[in-house]
Amino acid sequence: VAGLGNYGLRGTRHSVGMVVLDQLARQLAVAEGWRADRRCCADVVTAAAHGLELMLLKPRRFMNLNGLSVASAAEIYNFHPEDIYLVHDDLDKALGKVAIKLGGSARGHNGVRSCISALRSNEMTRLRVGIGRP
């Protein structure tokens, strides 16, 4: 599960994917386990939930380069695009509204575009979190 955002600008609506991952890590009782993985330029932590082993990943890059971290992690940890969930902001959804989307285009989202390009696939499941328009 990759939380897309701008690492240096955490706390902004555009980086809501990272905020969601921080909350998920707290709920799974692994929030103290985040570690920097230099091989994929991301913060990572593993957790178990409902019999599944999860890896949570927060890229340490700007949004338009998040895909490089996601693709590196996929190669290192042997994930396929269909195994990956992207959590990202959506300007076209009202603040706090969420939707799940399987595959498809980036719809103008630079972080998703970066992931599609780096993974050479659009088969990732996406959790779109509404941030509304300013």
TrEMBL record:
CDD domains: PTH
Keyword match RNA-binding: yes
GO MF terms, alphabetically ordered: peptidyl-tRNA hydrolase activity; tRNA binding
EC number: 3.1.1.29
Keywords, comma-separated and alphabetical: Hydrolase, RNA-binding, tRNA-binding
Enzyme class, spelled out: hydrolase
Keyword tRNA-binding: yes
Family matches, as Pfam families: Pept_tRNA_hydro
NCBIfam families: pth
Stated family: Belongs to the PTH family.
Name by which UniProt lists this protein: peptidyl-tRNA hydrolase
